Amino acid sequence: MDTFPQLLEHGFEGLHLFADPKTGLRALVGIHSTKLGPALGGTRALATYESEAAATTDVLRLARGMTYKAALAGLPHGGGKAVLMLPRGWFDRGTLFEAFGRAVETLNGRYITTEDSGTSPDDMEYVKRYTRNVVGLKATSGDPSPVTAVGVVRGMEAVAKHVFGSPDLKGARVTVLGVGHVGFALAGELSRRGAKLFVADLNREALDRTVKELGATPVNDRELLSMEADIFAPCALGAVLDDRTIPLLRVKAVAGAANNQLAEARHGKLLAERGITYAPDYAINAGGLINVAQEVVGYDRAKALERAGRIFDTIDALLARAKATGKRPEEVADAMVEEKLEA
Q: What is the mean pLDDT of the segment spanning 319-332?
């Protein structure tokens, strides 16, 4: 598909391509919107993109998602994202990210970057050498996982209020798919609230840690998807909700930390048809973005956690509006964002 039709159809402000022969840098920065403020979003660095077209599709999809996440969280930011097509052979990682820092600087503050899949705070330190438009640094906000987890569990409490009549998660049976950084932090929040945890992860070390430290019950991923429980929390890779997995679910709600949980938009309808309440991923998992956005104005951990806690109010209002209008939660979430952008 041609690029300009994609940009025009979804209201993008720009797609920027950067190359540096000396370091092997091949970077794409998508800026979806700066209506609410500078675009903020992470840098994804992978060596697995099959083509420039695949990288373009990814960066545009992700950038638009960041606009929606920031707007719904009430942040003074628009949405942007960067994708680095990493060299497949050896390369000097430090100099490559320095070159990327120079590229970000040419955007004159319209885009602020941070870490994402395949990047780390260490990478951002190299970016920082050439631009001030970078957050997620080790000396400031640090690991965003605990803040993300606080937001997700507060959103989950709002879901429980609407589905079970009370926000209290004590005794709730929660299945967690993926107990990496965010998944483990979320499991900790759930454990402290007295939830009964069932967890799955391909990483045996992460799984064993969750079982040992939090008393969770380990299961394999297939068993976890078909378990009878109250809430399913996807916290691993995206697109977990599809034609194969949704028919397996025996839960009342889906509320997790993973991005892009619906493989396709139509899968939200499939969940609704099965009577499963879905907390839109970009609404419930905004804690990480809230954390780095706080860094832009002067990092304060307490303020970041307090703001992440307000995700309860966002999900509460969203589900109330969905019930009142008869629309699905993800449709309501999109409408709420579009209203903010139009205003």
A: 97
